[in-house]
Amino acid sequence: MHHCKIKLNGTELVEFVTRVLTKDLDRPTIVLIEAEGWRNGRGEDNDGKIWPLLQNENLLAKRNVLDFCHVPGNTCEYKRDNKQLQNLLAIIRIRIGKETPQYITNREAWNQDCPARDFQHLSSFYDKSAPELLHYFSVGRLPKTQKAQDEMPIPELYKLGFQEDKYGANIPFKHQQMVEMVPFFVHPDFQTEEALKALCRVPHYLRCSPAWSMGNIILPYPMHLGQEIIEDHLCILGVNL
Question: Do 99 and 180 form a contact (C-beta atoms < 8 A)?
Fold first, then answer.
């Protein structure tokens, strides 16, 4: 009986990243990757490394380089002018949950003589304190209250996960979630501030799901779908990682 290996080690994970990024992309592409789970490995496999380039100090120093020198069988760096990567417009590192600030004050609401409200619409902010790396923050829109949901002609439901699911019961959906996006290995045509913000707006707007009207999903839609597919397959296989 063929054994299906569900959990890949650090070396196998970074080899997967290498194949995705360096294959012949047939159209302009923005690659999204989470920092958590990808920048560090666990245990002794591959010296505890998956893709250390995603760590802050390495990302700043090598923002125009794809460094795979630690990958067995690859051991090379790809420069930004590599013709093989012309269709790779940028890689955007994403941080969520406990790694991001979850509150930005709305000055107008504080100054007005009215109840302070969180941001009612999908909003974005950017930090220029590190000019070489634009830090873009995406804030989901204010979800509807339970009362408003109950009064709808057709009741809507939230999908809540298990207790250990950090995307489910442990994070109240009544609060917006902030996502940090940092583009690097950016195509020369997009290395202006306005162009960098345009790149980040793509995953920012993709936090609006056609099946989710009460707020916003946390991860951009393609990543959200991928995560749900993985969870569904693990459930079918009866695997508990």
Answer: yes
